[in-house]
Design goal:
Belongs to the 5'-AMP-activated protein kinase gamma subunit family. One of its GO terms (cellular component) is nucleus. The structure is a single chain. This protein has two domains: 3-13 and 207-357, CBS-domain (Roll); 56-204, CBS-domain (Roll). Strand 8 (260-264) and strand 9 form a beta hairpin. It is flat. 37% of the residues lie in helices and 16% in strands. By secondary structure, it is of the alpha/beta class.
C-alpha cells in the first residue's frame, strides 16, 4: 500500500572505508564535504536566479482550467464540483462588488464539519442545514469557532516567481491567487491560482541544477522531526492510532492548521495517513454520523484511488526529492526510519519551497512579461 521513495544518502554522510592516516583522512573528508557544499550552493543560487527571471504566470501551460465559485453558491454544490473536477480548492468571487473574495479550501470544510458536529441538535438538522449553507456564510462559522479568517493574499500574474514564492511562505499559504485589474471598469480578474506543488514541479522540470543538490534533507533542516517529550514521544508532530476517532483528528486539523496526520501502531511504525480530503468526503456524501467512527473503520470507506503513503528517509537528498516531485504528484512525505519504518518526521511542500527561496536577494521592482512557456501540470 505504501508508495516508498528511496533516494541515495548524501555524499557527506557516506564515510570512506579506506585505511589512511587519521590526519589526512579528516582533511580529505573536510575537503570532500566543502566541495559538495559548494556544488550544492551553486545549484541553489542558479535556481533562485531562475525564479527571478520568470513570472508567476510562466508556471502555467498555454491551456489550463480555473474553477471559480460565486460566494452565493451552496457549499455542498461547490464541494461536489471540486470532487468532479479533481481539485481541492477554488477562488471565490463576489459578483456584486466584482472582487476576488478569497479561497474555498478543505480547511473551510473542516471548520464547517466541526461547527455542525458541536452545535447541531441532531445529525438530521445538520444535514438539512448543509444542503442550503452558502459559501459566504463560512466567515460566520469561523467567528463561532473563534478561528481567524484567512487573509486575502494575491499577486499580479506578471510579478517575478520568486516574489510569489516568498509571499506563499510569508503568508503561510499553500496557494496564491493571481489577480489582474481592469483599469477601465475597476474589476478584479482572477487569472489562476499558483500552488506550492505546481511551483515545485515547475522548478523540478525546468532546472537541471537540481541534480547537484546532493545534501541530505535532514542536514539541510528541511522538515519537522520527532523531538520526544515525556508526555509525547512524537512531539511536535500530531499523530493518531487506528482507534482514534475521526472527529478527534478533525480537531487536530483545525487546531494545528494541518492537512494530514500519520497513523501509527503501538511501536511508532507508520501504518497509514489520514487527510482532510478523507473527512470532506463525508460532508459530500452526507454521512455525518461517521465522525464517531474509529480511523480503522473510516479507512475501509476510503476511495480505491488513494495513492498510498509516500515516505522518505532523512538521509535522502533534496535533488532526488525534487526529481520525485517532478515525476509524481505528492503533497507531503512521511520521514521514516528505513530499517524499522518508525516515524522520524514529516516534510511538507512548504518546507521544501521555504528552503529553496530563503535568504535569496530581492526581486526586480519592474514586473516581468509572462513567457509562452509552461509545464503541463495540475494542482
Amino acid at each position: 500500500m505504501a508508495d516508498v521513495y528511496d533516494g541515495p544518502t548524501s555524499p557527506s554522510m557516506s564515510p570512506s572505508v579506506k585505511k589512511i592516516p587519521r590526519r589526512f583522512s579528516m582533511r580529505g573528508r573536510a575537503n570532500s564535504h566543502a566541495i559538495h557544499l559548494d556544488i550544492h550552493q551553486d545549484a541553489l543560487s542558479k535556481i533562485r536566479n531562475f525564479l527571478k527571471t520568470r513570472s508567476a504566470f510562466d508556471v502555467f501551460p498555454l491551456s489550463y482550467k480555473c474553477v471559480i465559485f460565486d460566494t452565493k453558491l451552496p457549499v455542498k454544490q461547490a464541494l461536489n464540483t471540486m470532487h468532479s473536477q479533481g481539485i481541492v480548492s477554488a477562488p471565490l468571487y463576489n459578483q456584486k462588488k466584482w472582487q476576488f473574495a478569497g479561497m474555498l479550501t478543505l480547511s473551510d470544510i473542516i471548520h464547517l464539519i466541526q461547527f455542525y458536529y458541536l452545535k447541531a441538535e441532531t445529525f438530521e438538522t445538520a444535514a438539512a442545514d448543509v444542503e442550503t449553507f452558502r459559501i459566504e456564510s463560512l466567515r460566520d462559522v469561523e467567528r463561532e469557532l473563534n478561528v481567524p479568517s484567512p487573509a486575502l493574499h494575491s499577486i499580479h500574474p506578471s510579478r517575478p516567481l520568486l516574489e510569489a514564492c516568498k509571499l506563499l511562505i510569508e503568508s503561510h499559504a499553500r496557494r496564491l491567487p493571481l489577480i489582474d485589474h481592469d483599469s477601465a471598469s475597476g474589476m478584479e480578474l482572477i487569472a489562476s491560482v499558483l500552488t506550492q506543488y505546481r511551483t515545485l514541479k515547475f522548478i523540478a522540470n525546468n532546472c537541471k541544477e537540481i541534480k547537484n543538490l546532493h545534501l541530505s534533507l535532514r542536514s539541510l533542516g528541511i522538515g519537522t522531526y520527532v523531538d520526544p517529550r515525556p508526555d509525547d514521544p512524537y512531539y511536535p508532530i500530531a499523530t493518531a492510532t487506528m482507534d482514534t476517532t475521526v472527529f478527534e483528528v478533525v480537531q487536530m486539523f483545525s487546531a494545528q492548521g494541518i492537512s494530514a496526520v500519520p497513523i501509527l501502531d503501538d511501536d511508532g511504525v507508520v501504518k497509514n495517513i489520514y487527510e482532510t480530503l478523507d473527512v470532506t468526503s463525508l460532508i459530500r456524501s452526507g454521512t455525518y454520523t461517521k465522525l464517531d467512527l474509529s480511523i480503522r473503520s473510516a479507512l475501509t470507506l476510503r476511495s480505491s484511488e488513494f495513492p498510498g503513503v509516500v515516505t522518505c528517509s532523512g538521509a535522502d537528498s533534496l535533488g532526488k526529492l525534487l526529481e520525485f516531485i517532478g515525476a509524481k504528484r505528492v503533497h507531503r512525505l512521511i520521514v521514516v526510519d528505513p530499517e524499522t519504518g518508525k516515524l522520524n518526521g514529516i516534510i511538507t511542500l512548504s518546507d521544501i519551497l521555504k528552503y529553496l527561496v530563503k535568504d535569496s536577494v530581492s526581486y526586480p521592482s519592474t514586473p516581468l512579461q509572462p513567457s509562452m512557456e509552461g509545464t503541463e501540470t495540475e494542482d
